[in-house]
Write a structure and sequence with these properties.
Protein name: Glucose-6-phosphate 1-dehydrogenase
Shape: globular
Domain Glucose-6-phosphate dehydrogenase NAD-binding: 12-121
Oligomer: single chain
Number of strands: 9
GO molecular function, one term: glucose-6-phosphate dehydrogenase activity
Number of domains: 2
Strand content: 15-25%
Strand order of the largest sheet: 6-7-8-9
Organism: Citrus x changshan-huyou
CATH architecture of the largest domain: 2-Layer Sandwich
Order of helices and strands: HHEHEHEEEEEEEHHHH
Largest sheet: 4 strands, antiparallel
InterPro entries: G6P_DH, G6P_DH_C, G6P_DH_NAD-bd, NAD(P)-bd_dom_sf
CATH class of the largest domain: Alpha Beta
CATH superfamily of the largest domain: Dihydrodipicolinate Reductase, domain 2
């Protein structure tokens, strides 16, 4: 096998890593293969199993692993890739089957798209909808009336992963009648960005120096790569280290997965029932026009700048 590794800043660490890497030829979904694996790891008392297998083979692999390859002296942790089911029912049965073999604290559901660039490689023959936009609310006193806007898409003008917090305009503004022509500037905004570069951005409307009350929009930016002379770990590096440390706060639990499907499943059923066609948008554009009407309906200006 030819290892496909990024050699930057690795040095001798690559050789040390590869010296601990082995290939075992055996069926991953049968007892004999798992027993061979367990024998190879006989003296290893802490084990992490990364199940990067076809979805249809996942339960067979997990079941055989649970019986034949777990250590009885230390801990066992199981990493599972998406998809975690295709609807609420299939997700429920998958979770139930996994929890019959493992404890919740042993399971680490990893989103492989966090660590791969394949999300940008959209196959032109794919019939899967490539854009999703929604407005959600949390039904409690703290977040009452606060819209949470979510959008995700492929083939857009820019590839970004970020959280944007927009601050409401102050009611009863005593300066309302004295501002210049640019009173309708965008709201003050805090942006927590992960892609393309990790950064914390603050966009504020400030008074222009001088007489009068002229406003202008300014940015206060913290780019991690400029501030800190350190290599930012890949998403996969961070997640795998968390598995080793037994820290699962970034991983989805079974109850969180169920809650997510309870929200999305009625939407999917409605789309299938009424044969709703996805709204088309231009490759390399800003996404469906309908999304911007949705933001405006909830009083939000969502720019791509």
């Amino acid at each position: 096998m030819q290892p496909r590794l990024t050699m930057e800043n690795c040095g001798d660490k690559i050789d040390a890593f590869l010296s601990r890497t082995y290939y075992l030829n055996g069926g991953y979904d049968n007892r004999e293969g798992m027993l061979k694996l367990s024998a190879l790891m006989e003296h290893i008392e802490v084990r992490i199993f990364y199940l990067s297998v076809p979805q249809e083979a996942l339960l067979d692999v997990a079941s055989t692993l649970a019986i034949c390859a777990q250590t009885q002296k230390g801990w066992n942790r199981i990493i599972i890739e998406k998809p975690f089911g295709f609807d609420a029912l299939s997700s429920h049965w998958l979770t139930k089957a996994l929890l019959s073999k493992f404890q919740e604290k042993q399971l680490y559901r990893i989103d492989h798209l966090l660590g791969r660039n394949l999300i940008e490689n959209l196959t032109v023959l794919s019939l899967t909808p490539t854009y999703f936009a929604a407005v959600l609310y949390i039904d409690n006193s703290r977040w009452d009336g606060m819209p949470f806007l979510i959008k995700a898409g492929m083939g857009l003008i820019k590839h970004r992963v970020e959280i944007r917090i927009q601050f409401r305009h102050v009611p009863g503004n005593i300066y309302h009648d004295r501002f210049g022509h640019n009173i309708n500037l965008a709201a003050n905004e805090l942006i927590l960005r992960d892609v393309p570069d990790e950064a914390i951005l603050v966009r504020v409307n400030n008074k222009v120096p001088g007489l009068g009350l002229q406003l202008d929009a300014s940015e206060l930016n913290l780019l991690y790569k400029d501030k800190y002379n350190a290599e930012v770990p890949d998403s996969y590096e961070h997640l795998l280290l968390d598995v080793i440390d037994g820290d699962n706060h970034l991983f989805m639990r079974s109850d969180e997965l169920t809650a997510a499907w309870n929200i999305l499943n009625p939407v999917l059923q409605e789309i299938d029932k009424n044969n709703i066609a996805p709204e088309l948008y231009e490759l390399g554009g800003r996404g469906p026009v309908g999304a911007y009407y949705l933001w405006a309906k909830h009083g939000v200006q969502w720019t791509e700048d």
